[in-house]
Amino acid sequence: xxxxxxxxxxxxxxxxxxxxxxxxxxxxxxxxxxxxxxxxxxxxxxxxxxxxxxxxxxxxxxxxxxxxxxxxxxxxxxxxxxxxxxxxxxxxxxxxxxxxxxxxxxxxxxxxxxxxxxxxxxxxxxxxxxxxxxxxxxxxxxxxxxxxxxxxxxxxxxxxxxxxxxxxxxxxxxxxxxxxxxxxxxxxxxxxxxxxxxxxxxxxxxxxxxxxxxxxxxxxxxxxxxxxxxxxxxxxxxxxxxxxxxxxxxxxxxxxxxxxxxxxxxxxxxxxxxxxxxxxxxxxxxxxxxxxxxxxxxxxxxxxxxxxxxxxxxxxxxxxxxxxxxxxxxxxxxxxxxxxxxxxxxxxxxxxxxxxxxxxxxxxxxxxxxxxxxxxxxxxxxxxxxxxxxxxxxxxxxxxxxxxxxxxxxxxxxxxxxxxxxxxxxxxxxxxxxxxxxxxxxxxxxxxxxxxxxxxxxxxxxxxxxxxxxxxxxxxxxxxxxxxxxxxxxxxxxxxxxxxxxxxxxxxxxxxxxxxxxxxxxxxxxxxxxxxxxxxxxxxxxxxxxxxxxxxxxxxxxxxxxxxxxxxxxxxxxxxxxxxxxxxx
Length: 585
Prior knowledge:
The protein is α/β, with parallel strands linked by helices and 585 residues long. 63% of the residues lie in helices and 10% in strands. The chain has a 6-stranded mixed sheet, with helices on both faces.
């Protein structure tokens, strides 16, 4: 039988069981309770023979006085065994869900940026919710069927053999037919289960985009477009579910028909056995009850393949995430606070093998405590260049060093501890301003208030109901763009790292706020190595050095005055921006 099982299913299910094995003690309790349930129900069916023969046929109340007590005790035992089964299996199922989710979530924290570049958020969220639930259902359902239902069928066969071996052998002939049907339907179950999980990911993706970008939908009138997108995704999910339901229902119906034919033939043979005196009325009732009692477990055994295949498909998608390569963290060098000498030496980088170079042979030295401004048109590689420094991506060729040590030699935690980042795309978590300011570290109240004050966060949190402890909403939705930016700047101020990256850090601020933030940033940038990406060239005029990027290359380098005097790219950008900006008066 094992040779017929898809090797991939064995491998995936074997991995799933690694999440069950740590809870084997509770599993033993579940198995014991399920075995007890099967035995108790077998006893219940067997009691029908003396009930019928002694009470209903012979009408002998003296010899049947014990039967009501036996039934009552049997039902008590059945209730206790059922309670133990449901409780223990439910506990195992929820533990498997919790362990899997934590494992996948922990993996998401260590995956490289390239993984997220190639993955939509919807399917990932679907795996964390829908797929994990399907996996847990698969584990608990298969355990229930493999133990309780199989034992129930065995117990039912034992009762039937006790009362009529001849009829039991006839019933047993039907099982190879049922087994063939199960195998025939398994391929379809697996195929449709995979497709259902894909369509669930599409539904989640569309919903996530509408929730996060609802202002775009409203501003540009995308109601009809989004409804059509959702209807298409939901329609595909509906159709795949219906195909699975059709296959499963057809399998159940055919199985019932096969058993119906068998039952009809059994009744005919049992009537002959009864007429010939080899089967009493009570024995026939007990035999027939055992046979019908067996039908429900057999039906579940028939359908277990659908649950199994759905769980295997879900587990496969989860293990695909778990098996992804982590960020490369092979360095061993640690330094709690570097001086801040940064150098790029002939650095090349592209996002894919088929893509052109985004960074094409850049070499630049940034002495400790100095400020390097990086300017250029959109798509010139500015943000990509600074993202290489904290190793969000690794260069294809060349070397990046801090204090003369290659960044790949640092432990990632140590490297990133020395770098603060404030970017254009501000990421705030659904927590308080205080929690977002102190994210990733532990600080005193004085340090928090000083940083919040320096970043002008206190200007707006003083008016909030709970001050710094007021929730900022999902992605900071309860704050304005400028307020979110100030919190991000305060977070960098609080971290106090020797290397600072400012990627359009003041772009979301109004002029008045920008002037105040520039003061705070000027204080922050003192004695720190700072890499500044700026769209407004007026904000980088005081940089120690400015480089102009074009198509991933440095085309100009110098101070603000030197670059203006050259009359090249920088001067053109400056004149263009100066002409676009309104003049005072």
